[in-house]
Amino acid sequence: DTEVTQTPKHLVMGMTNKKSLKCEQHMGHRAMYWYKQKAKKPPELMFVYSYEKLSINESVPSRFSPECPNSSLLNLHLHALQPEDSALYLCASSQAGTSGLNEQFFGPGTRLTVL
Amino acid sequence: KNQVEQSPQSLIILEGKNCTLQCNYTVSPFSNLRWYKQDTGRGPVSLTIMTFSENTKSNGRYTATLDADTKQSSLHITASQLSDSASYICVVSVKTNAGKSTFGDGTTLTVKP
After folding, report:
1. B76, B84, B89, B109: least surrounded by Cβ within 10 Å?
2. For residues B113 and B107, what is the distance between their CA atoms, to the nearest angstrom?
3. Average confidence score pLDDT of chain B
4. pLDDT exceeding 70 applies to what percent of chain A?
5. Which residues in B94-107 are b (16+ Cβ under 10 Å) and which e?
6. How many angstroms away from the CA of B98 is the closest CA of chain A?
7. Which of A46, A21, A28 is nearest to A109 (CA)?
8. Among A66, A63, A65, residue whose Cα is nearest residue A15
9. Quick one: pLDDT at residue B95?
10. Which tens digits make up the pLDDT trace of A64-73?
């Protein structure tokens, strides 16, 4: 299984709502990533988990809260978002450490709209 | 500062024609270079991945080259199809435990009938 799945595909939320994005992979990868992508721009790294521990937080506002419950799952909890947070949110996974190629496999993304 | 620059920014070609996309990088220490294809509104899909010692790698009609001395890579698409219309992103990784990568801005390819 070389697939990264993400749910939901689309999400519309108000600025006072609390919602969560979910990501799952069964490739045995121990590194998982969250990216934010605006239209016609490359993905921007938000968070990296390595062996279920947060290893990189790219100065992301606290209204985004990542969680890695186990080696296959990655969540992104959303609270009090702003309209400018509307974007495609991509999850990716890869082997961890420097011994592998760290090739990242991306999920299809969640299209988020904040009203 | 680690940078990846892609050219051209956009490209329009006729179906059946070939094209070449360019990627120049200043990432160090270099681990690998990957080319991704991204359809609008979808996640990137890996086309090729090359390490320092690899000069060329093919995936069907896609052929990537890497010159580690000049820090340049190219992606050549042969006999283009309408389904090749997408954004092509060059991504370079460094040799760190975090696997942090530097993304290029991408080249938007449009294939017309």
Report:
1. B76
2. 19
3. 92
4. 94
5. beeebbbbbbbbbb
6. 7
7. A21
8. A63
9. 76
10. 999 999 999 9
> How far, in Å, CA of A33 to CA of A40, rounded?
20
- pLDDT at residue B31 tops 90: no
- Residue A103 pLDDT: 80
Q: Which two tokens stand for residue B39?
A: 């359809």
CA distance B96 to B67: 21
Pairing of strands B86-94, B30-38: antiparallel
- Can you read off the two tokens belonging to residue B45? 């899909």
**B101 band by pLDDT with thresholds 50, 70 and 90:** confident
Which residue among B51, B106, B108 sits closest to A101, beta carbon to beta carbon? Answer: B51
Phi, psi at residue A30, to the nearest 5°? -110, 10
Backbone dihedral region for residue A109 (phi beyond 0: left; psi -120 to 50: alpha; all else: beta): left
